Structures are given as structure tokens and as C-alpha cells.
Amino acid sequence: MSTTAEAGAASITHSNASSSVLDPANFPQTKSSDSIYICLVYDPIDSQACLRFTRSPTAGANVLFLGTTRNNFDSRPVSRLSYSAYPSLAIKSLFAIAEDVQKKHGLEKIAIVHRLGEVKIEEESIAVSVSSGHRASGWRGAEEILERVKARAEIWKREWFADTGEVEEGVWRANKDRDAQGNVITKP
After folding, report:
1. Total of domains in the chain
2. In terms of Cα–Cα distance, which of 104, 81, 98 is closest to 155?
3. Which residues bind substrate (predicted)?
4. Is residue 179 a part of any domain in this protein?
5. Would you list the DSSP string of 7-52?
6. 187 in a domain, yes or no?
């Protein structure tokens, strides 16, 4: 990474502690280049660090999307979410998505940071930040990254509903069961 990119990536970095492949002590896990930064974290996402990484003097647009935990789903009260992943594959998938979308939309820089573990109501579970010469490619690129991450990345979501007395296991949910407008995707 360049010096500016290193500064942005360094401020995205967090630390933690525990045991196994998903042991928070083994995170953050990252993969980066001069123009792409991918990170899986257990700690809250530093959205400003994502913007610092993607900022560029030649970019006329910086787009930041933050996916947050809402307190409801299908009119049911949600108490919290938890994310699990296959980290090494998820990072490779996220990087491949970023490379492809970067080429397709002519994006300058991309940062994708995804939380693992428990994500409380109003906290961010994902940050997608992109920079581009103009806003149209930035908007389209950020949206495409998010949709591809939901469809392809080896990251799984578990949801707890407050109206079920907090079932210990929660409900595993597919990230791709809704489109960008929140409509249910019907399977053929």
C-alpha cells in the first residue's frame, strides 16, 4: 500500500481477544493493495477510516454505505444480529468482488469492511466505501459491491427476535433473501 493507503488502513485496524478460526484474537484479517482494502473485524467499524483509505485527489466522488442492524424484520422485533464467516474464503471473495467492480465501473479505490460476531441494534455490520471520478460510477459501483457481497461472500447472518423469548440459537438468515428495495426474492 502507498503511504496514504497505509495510514487509512492502519486506522481501520482494530484488536480483540478469545480461541479457534473465528477467535476474535485472530482479527482483524485483511487483504489489500494500493487501491483495495478488505477487512473482517469483530470491533465496531471505523467508517471515517474507510473514507480516508478511498479518498483520492483525482476522485470527484466518495460514496460510503453503512449497513446497520435495524430493530425489526418483517414486522417482528429484532433484538440483535450475529455474523459468522469462513474468513480466508470470505476475504478472497470480497477482494475478487472489489477487483471486478473496480474494473467494471472505473472506481479508483474500494474499502469493504465486514463485522463478525454480535452486532447490536443501530451498529454497522458492513461498510462499503468507493471513490471515483464522477458520482454515477461511484453510486453504481458501491451498490453492485453490496449486492455481490450479499450473494457471494462466505459470511452468514443469525438474527434474534425479541418476540420469541430470545431463542438461544437465533434464526440463520440468507443475506440474499431481499433485493435492494427490501422486496422478498422469490426462488424459481
Report:
1. 1
2. 81
3. 134-135, 150, 157-159
4. no
5. HHHHHH------SSTT-GGG--EEEE-SSEEEEEESSPP-HHHHHH
6. no
Between 47-54 and 3-12, two packed helices, what is the crossing angle to 10 degrees?
170
Helix/strand/coil for 153:
coil
| 1 three-state secondary structure | coil
Give residue 123's domain range. 3-173
Q: Kindly report the CA angle at 112 between 107 and 116, in degrees rounded to 5?
A: 170
Residue 26 lies in a domain: yes
Assess if residue 111 is contained within a domain. Answer: yes
Annotated binding site for substrate: 134-135, 150, 157-159
pLDDT at 180 over 60: no
Of 42, 55, 147, 132, nearest to 97 by C-alpha is 147
**Binding region:** 134-135, 150, 157-159
CATH of the domain at 142: 3.90.1170.40
Chain segment 83-113, per-residue pLDDT in tens: 999 999 999 999 999 999 999 999 999 999 9
Helices (DSSP H) in the chain: which residue ranges?
A: 3-12, 47-54, 87-105, 135-152
> Is beta strand 171-173 parallel, antiparallel or unpaired with respect to 155-161?
antiparallel
Residue 148, SS3 per DSSP: helix
Task: Taking the CA atoms of 162, 164, 167 and 169 in sequence, report the sign of the dihedral they define.
Answer: negative
Q: Quick one: how far is CA 13 from the chain centroid?
A: 14
Q: Is 173 helix (H, G, I), strand (E, B) or coil?
A: strand
